[in-house]
């Protein structure tokens, strides 16, 4: 080893040590500032999850944990017709079970609110006064969901509801009914209301994604000879794809955790004979309404978590 | 094979509040390389976008050959455009970007690939075809934008300051390359720039614009030799022409304390230039009456810095203007001397700087090198 090499090695060493020292300081600083957040996260997220994960394997006397019962709670809950009602599903009769209803929300609500949001965003993109319109649509999303549920009640009210009035005005009076209390149609009425509310959110996300697209890209496509349809599919759609992923997943999470709208419309039972109950409602009833079945509440809550958590994680990991 | 004609084309924005272009009348000959030159905000981009069809004129008519195209979409005009920021599609590879105009036109993939290969070879970017635009350097991006523009043999080629994002050396290279490409393809080209050197070196003809209007349309040489307005004179050249402000009294121009210059000497300039066959502006031919008529008014006498000579003792004959040396800038190639004449700063380019600060000097120039602009800033022949 020449003197020169030796010298280089020494300086390199000190460099590395310095780097580590800086990293350690940083790590400490990060840890210090994370403590409040992590504490809250542990108390309000991790602890309940762990608690219910353990509790779901025990039998319960109201709120008192008794003894280990293995998968009893799980089997009882998953075969409960309130969660999945196989025989009604075969006949397409509501109620079909809370989980089924939740999935129906996913299948209908998520694509509809996504596409409507994109369509509105495109429509508002080159409209005068788009800011006002945009904030009006978005206002629907800032209102607490329980208020939305109440607004939907008003919309669908059999006597004073504007929806029935609207049907009468357009000469479809024979369709008039008590929408939230008719088992076979109530869930669709609620989903329609949910779409109406949630579209504002996806529109807002799409709006900012659209305004982030360099207008010269669209102009360039025009010059290249692309018509509006091709410009959408070749340029706009691929460029807003990351936002589509967010909108879709947030939509799924939103409907999987659905509670307020259903509660406002159908109370703790989730409609007449549980016609449009969802998982959130079942958790609430099992935990807080007699007959209290704490074990089942935990299982259903975990079921919700299993569906939602990976999606949330995916969004968190994006970019 | 397309010529472009603009007739009285105006473009207003914000309900007439902003006048981006005002009464542009212009003909671009088939195969010509025409450059729009002007300061920032003078309406060059707007003019280009009007030709492209990305904007529609508020007034006036645009023809491609004999067809009226205003009101038509960009794609139906078959123009190709290179945007200032290149506007490459970020989610497509280089090959997909270049092939996009063909894909839109339904050209089969085989032929598309062949064409892409052809133009990428022409522009030396064949190694980049698989990359996304974000992975390219500025010069490579610019070539991709060019390739996308030339792949479908457009009728008109429009470029909006395509070199402004490149460093000086690359800009120089691309300038030569662009000019060569245009010669080879022989496509009518309209090029926008605020860089004078770029305009002068590439253009067949230059359109000088200011505040939305066309000031002069001329080949680079003529633009330099015969700036038609005082504004153009002050804009072209580096440093630009000096304009000595004076008062015209019958046969001479009075510069107050700085002296006076005989007008008929200067005005002979116009005649000589005309004899050389330069394109004459309308309304000339009455120089005699201009000289003899008993008029007074503010005028400006233009002399280029390179045509001024400096002496420290008063010359006995010729055109002499007196001044005081302000600063001397030795620039290596030449020495730039700034002289104060009646509170006005003028420059002279000298081979060597023998004068010093605050020295009293005399600026002299040949009759042939002087330009006279009337109070409206128009060149007096
Ligand atoms: N879409 C628009 N809306 C309103 N005003 C506009 C619009 N486009 C251009 N203008 C105005 O028109 C004028 C000319 O603009 P233009 O972009 O043509 O200038 P330019 O010569 O290209 O300038 P630069 O060299 O800075 O690119 C400017 O005053 C600009 O503010
Ligand atoms: Mg511009």
Automatic annotation (TrEMBL), chain A:
InterPro entries assigned to the protein according to its UniProt record, in alphabetical order: MetI-like (IPR000515), MetI-like_sf (IPR035906)
Keywords from the named record: Cell membrane, Membrane, Transmembrane, Transmembrane helix, Transport
ABC transmembrane type-1 domain residues: 99-315
Domain of life: Archaea
Compartment annotation: Cell membrane
Gene Ontology CC, one term: plasma membrane
Name of the protein in its database record: Binding-protein-dependent transport system inner membrane protein
Organism (species): Natrialba hulunbeirensis JCM 10989
Lineage of source species: Archaea, Methanobacteriati, Methanobacteriota, Stenosarchaea group, Halobacteria
